[in-house]
């Protein structure tokens, strides 16, 4: 299902609760979802955006402020090539869908650094 501003708060809440309860996710993704649930921001877990030539799956989308939060685990994000691909995808998400993307790495998600990144991004959103 492609996510956008058309989904109701009820649909978003049901999807996030189901995903957190049953989803096949990494420890870092689970921590990200727990943090977002604890602060009460409605978010859509594991949604996708159409980028024209492919779909971009994102870890969490917060529709009311057009924010994507990506948890970058080790696999696929640790190489220079992987990081460059992430930057290009983030720019395309911003250009095509007007979303801001923040990335939290595997070390920061379990510390105050990751929580501060999320908090700062949410405070600066319109």
Q: Can you tell me about this structure?
A:
The protein is an alpha+beta fold and 126 residues long. The protein has a single domain (9-123), classed as Endonuclease, Chain A (3-Layer(aba) Sandwich). Helices cover 45% and strands 21% of the residues. It contains four helices and four strands. The protein has helices spanning 9-22, 27-39, 80-97, 112-123, and strands spanning 44-50, 55-62, 67-72, 100-105. A four-stranded mixed sheet has the order 1-2-3-4, sandwiched between helices. Helix 3 links the parallel strand 3 and strand 4 (100-105). Mean pLDDT is 80; it is low at 1-6.
Give a brief rundown of this model.
This protein is an alpha+beta fold. It contains four helices and four strands.
């Amino acid at each position: 299902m492609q996510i956008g501003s058309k989904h109701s708060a009820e649909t978003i809440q049901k999807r996030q609760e189901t995903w957190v309860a049953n989803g096949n996710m990494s420890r870092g993704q689970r921590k990200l979802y727990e943090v977002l649930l604890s602060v009460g921001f409605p978010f859509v877990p594991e949604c996708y955006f159409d980028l024209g030539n492919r779909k971009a799956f994102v870890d969490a989308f917060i529709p009311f402020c057009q924010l994507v939060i990506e948890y970058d685990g080790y696999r696929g994000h640790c190489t220079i090539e992987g990081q460059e691909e992430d930057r290009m995808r983030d720019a395309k998400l911003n250009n095509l869908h007007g979303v801001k993307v923040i990335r939290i790495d595997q070390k920061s998600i379990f510390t105050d650094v990751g929580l501060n990144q999320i908090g700062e991004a949410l405070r600066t959103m319109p």
